[in-house]
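Appendix B, Record 12. Input sequence as logged:
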Amino acid sequence: MGEIAVAPIEILIKGIPETVLFILAIHIFINLKVDYKKSFIIFFISMCVTYMTRFLPIGYVVHLLISITTWVLYFQLVYCLPLSKAGRVILSVSAGVILIVIAEMINCYLLQVYFGPTMIDYVFSVATPLAKCLYMLPSTVIFGILVLIIWLILKRIRSHKKKIAESRNE
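Logged structural output:
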């Protein structure tokens, strides 16, 4: 097991947009209004912690578990959420991770279809950090589209629930 090192260019091109989308996704899932100051604190801390944990000599799954745990802690501590919302935060972070994995899988599938099976090996083993970012950038766009679709679905569901509640009160 080695480190999962990240080049600075990867942080700029892929890490920052994906982290912002991830924070937005958690807000959407929890139905929490975005507080830009608190979101920036979460963004800054998560970027630093994620970057540092990638240098630990641990496997990817352990890294993922550390990331999920710290994301839950970020939201609980920064937003001072009641313990009753901890379950929703855990589910939201897990759903966000699952969406990222789905987006990455779709992107890898598209790379394989358009460029052949050797492209995946090239991207993950030989490609320069910039080339890797460019090949994997569509996954961030796909992740953004998935977040947007879920936001629209949840907005419609919440609006429908609100109308039902208002009609019962009349």
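The mean pLDDT is 86.
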